[in-house]
Design brief:
Its EC number is 4.2.1.136, 5.1.99.6. Belongs to the NnrE/AIBP family. It catalyses: (6S)-NADHX + ADP = AMP + phosphate + NADH + H(+); (6S)-NADPHX + ADP = AMP + phosphate + NADPH + H(+); (6R)-NADHX = (6S)-NADHX; (6R)-NADPHX = (6S)-NADPHX. Homotetramer. This protein is of the alpha/beta class. It has two domains: 201 residues, 3-Layer(aba) Sandwich (Rossmann fold); 271 residues, Ribokinase (UDP-N-acetylmuramoyl-L-alanine:D-glutamate ligase), CATH 3.40.1190.20. 40% of the residues lie in helices and 15% in strands. The chain has a ten-stranded mixed β-sheet with strand order 8-17-16-15-14-13-12-9-10-11, with helices on both faces. Strands 3-2-1-4-5-6-7 form a seven-stranded parallel β-sheet, covered by helices on one side. The protein starts with 11 loop residues before the first helix and ends with a helix. The relative contact order is 0.10. It binds ligand NAX and potassium ion (K). Ligand NAX binds next to α1, α2 and α3.
C-alpha cells in the first residue's frame, strides 16, 4: 500500500477510503479499528482528566458514536463513573451497533445530560461523517457543557466542525481532541483548529489507500537551497523588487530585506529616481536601479535574475498589468505577485493566467489575503468548500501557485498538491509582514527552489521568524529573525 508520511492530511473521504482499504486488505476488521479508536480515547481521558468525578459520553448514530461506546465500556471497566447519552440509536448492522451492544450500562437521551464543573464530557456525536448544521438537541447539550465549565474531549473532531473545511459555528470549545491515523484539514483550518484544543493523533492501524496530496506544512516537505563554498553571488541567484512611488517605498524595502535574508546572491530594487533617492537613505547592501522607460529591459539587464516581486506598495496598476505577463513570457524568472499587482488584474485576470500557462511550469506565485483573493477569484471566494478547496480551485484556474494568506495560510499548486501552514503567530498580523513573505518566496525561488516548495518553505520560515521575533515584533524584526531561523534548521 501507499506510504503516507506522518505530515499528510486526509480529507474525510480519503480517511474513509483508508479505513475501507485497511478492512478490505484483511489486516483489521471495522470493529477492531473501532476498538483501537475507543481505547485511544479512553486512554486520553485517563491520562489528561484523571481527576474527573464523572465522565459523560455523548454518542451519535454513526461510527463516531461507536468509538464513544467503546471508550465508555473501557472507562467503566477501569472503575470510572460513566454515563452514556445517545442522540439516536446507532445505525442498524453497523460496527457502532456492535459497540453499543457491548456497553452494559444505561443509555439516556441527550436532554438528561446535567454536567458539573468537575466532570469530563466525551463528545462522540459526530466526526468525519458530519456535514451541515448541528441538530437542536445537540446544540442544547453542548451549550450545557459550556455553561457547566467542564472540559470536553472530542472524538476525532469537535462535533459540528466540518473535517474538510474547519467550519463549525455551533461547535463547543474542546480541551483536547483525539484523532486517528492522520489529521483532517478541519484540524488545521480555523475555527476548527482552535475548537479542537490540544490535538492527539493516534495510530490505530489504518493503512494508506492512496499517496497523499495534502500536508501540514513543515521542513519535511521541502529542502532548502545550499551553496558550495566556491559559489559566487550570481550563481546564488538574484531577486528584483519593483518599488512604489516616492511616498510608498517601505513595502518594496521589506520585500527586498526578506529576499536578501533568504540566501540569494543579490537583491535589487527598481524604481523611479525620486523613489530610489528615498531607498538610498535607508539601505546599504540592497542595490538600486532606475526602472527607466522600459521596465522589462531594466529587469532583463540584471545578472542572474531568478525571481521578481511585483506588487508590494506598487501603486501603479497599469505597470503591473503590462509587466507581469511580460515577465512570465519574456524572462525565465519566477514572478511573485502580491498586493497591488493582484488587485490590478481584478477586472480581467485572463492575460495573467494565460501568460502563466505560456510561461511554463509553475512560474507564478500569487500571494493574496482574503480580500485580494475575493477580487481575483470572486466566484470561487463566494462558493462552498472552505479555504483549502478554494485555494486549489484558484491554483487550477490561474496556472500558478496560490498562497492564500491568513492565520491558516494554504499553499496550493495547479497539480492539486496543497499544504496548510500551522505555525503562524499573531506576530505576523502586522503591517509589512506580507511584504517580507513575498520577498522570502522570491529569495528561495531565485536559488532554484521550485515554486510550490519555495512558497511552502517561505510560509513556514516566516511563521518561525515571527515566533522568534516575539509578540510585539514589527515587519523589520521578522526579516531580521530569518538568519537565526535558517541557522536553526540548517539552511
Ligand atoms: N475512518 C477511520 O479510520 C475510522 C473511523 N472511526 C470513527 O468513525 C467516524 C466516522 O464515522 P461515520 O462515517 O459513521 O460518521 P459520523 O459518526 O461522524 O457521522 C455519521 C452520522 O451522522 C449523521 N449526520 C451527519 N451530519 C449530520 C447533521 N448535520 N445532522 C444530523 N445528523 C448528521 C449521518 O447521517 C450519519 O448517521 C470517525 O469520525 C471516527 O470517529 C473509528 O471508529 C475507526 C476508524
Ligand atoms: K466528535
Amino acid at each position: 500500500m501507499a506510504d503516507i508520511a506522518a505530515d499528510a492530511i486526509l480529507s474525510n473521504a480519503e480517511m474513509a477510503a483508508a479505513d475501507r482499504a485497511t478492512i478490505d486488505s484483511g489486516a483489521f476488521s471495522g470493529p477492531a479499528l473501532m476498538e483501537n479508536a475507543g481505547a485511544a480515547v479512553a486512554a486520553a481521558a485517563l491520562a489528561r482528566f484523571a481527576g474527573a468525578a464523572r465522565v459523560h459520553v455523548l454518542c451519535g448514530p454513526g461510527n463516531n458514536g461507536g468509538d464513544g461506546y467503546v471508550a465508555a465500556r473501557i472507562l467503566a471497566e477501569r472503575g470510572v463513573v460513566v454515563c452514556v447519552y445517545a442522540l439516536k440509536p446507532p445505525r442498524p448492522d453497523s460496527d457502532a451497533e456492535q459497540a453499543a451492544r457491548r456497553w452494559a450500562g444505561a443509555v439516556e437521551t441527550l436532554d438528561a445530560l446535567v454536567p458539573h464543573a468537575g466532570d469530563l464530557v466525551i463528545d462522540a456525536l459526530f466526526g468525519a461523517g458530519f456535514s451541515g448544521g448541528l441538530p437542536d438537541p445537540v446544540k442544547t447539550a453542548l451549550v450545557r457543557c459550556r455553561d457547566a465549565g467542564c472540559p470536553v474531549l472530542a472524538v476525532d473532531l469537535p462535533s459540528g466542525v466540518n473535517g474538510d473545511t474547519g467550519e463549525g459555528e455551533d461547535a463547543v470549545q474542546c480541551a483536547a481532541t483525539v484523532t486517528f491515523y492522520r489529521k483532517r484539514p478541519g484540524h488545521l483550518l480555523f475555527p476548527g483548529r482552535t475548537l479542537c484544543g490540544t490535538i492527539e493523533t493516534v495510530d490505530i492501524d489504518v493503512r494508506a489507500a492512496e499517496p497523499p496530496r495534502t500536508w501540514q506544512n513543515g521542513p519535511a516537505l521541502w529542502t532548502l537551497p545550499r551553496h558550495r563554498a566556491d559559489t559566487h553571488k550570481y550563481a546564488r541567484g538574484a531577486v528584483a523588487v519593483l518599488s512604489g512611488p516616492r511616498h510608498g517605498t517601505g513595502a518594496a524595502r521589506l520585500s527586498a530585506m526578506g529576499a536578501q535574508r533568504s540566501g540569494p546572491g543579490a537583491a535589487t530594487i527598481l524604481g523611479h529616481p525620486d523613489a530610489l533617492d528615498i531607498h538610498a537613505a535607508h539601505i546599504t547592501s540592497i542595490m538600486l536601479r532606475p526602472l527607466g522607460d522600459d521596465p522589462l529591459a531594466a529587469l532583463q539587464a540584471l545578472k542572474g535574475l531568478g525571481a521578481v516581486v511585483l506588487g508590494p506598495g506598487l501603486g501603479d496598476f497599469a505597470l503591473a498589468r503590462r509587466l507581469a505577463p511580460a515577465i512570465l513570457i519574456e524572462t525565465e524568472a519566477m514572478l511573485v505577485l502580491d498586493a497591488d499587482a493582484i488587485t490590478a488584474f481584478a477586472d480581467d485576470p485572463s492575460p495573467l493566467f494565460e501568460a502563466a500557462r505560456t510561461g511554463g511550469a509553475e512560474r507564478l506565485v500569487l500571494t493574496p489575503h482574503a480580500g485580494e483573493f475575493a477580487r481575483l477569484f470572486p466566484d470561487i471566494a463566494d462558493g462552498d468548500g472552505g479555504k483549502l478547496a478554494k485555494a486549489r480551485q484558484a491554483a487550477d484556474r490561474s496556472g500558478g501557485i496560490v498562497l492564500f494568506k491568513g492565520a491558516d495560510t494554504v499553499v496550493a499548486a495547479p497539480d492539486g498538491r496543497a499544504a496548510i501552514n500551522a505555525n503562524a503567530t499573531a506576530a505576523l498580523a502586522t503591517a509589512g509582514s506580507g511584504d517580507v513573505l513575498a520577498g522570502i518566496i522570491a529569495g528561495l525561488a531565485a536559488q532554484s527552489m521550485p515554486a510550490f516548495e519555495a512558497a511552502c518553505a517561505a510560509a513556514w520560515l516566516h511563521g518561525e521568524a515571527g515566533r522568534r521575533a516575539g509578540s510585539h515584533a514589527i515587519a523589520e524584526d521578522i526579516a531580521d529573525a530569518l538568519p537565526a531561523v535558517f541557522g536553526e534548521i540548517g539552511g
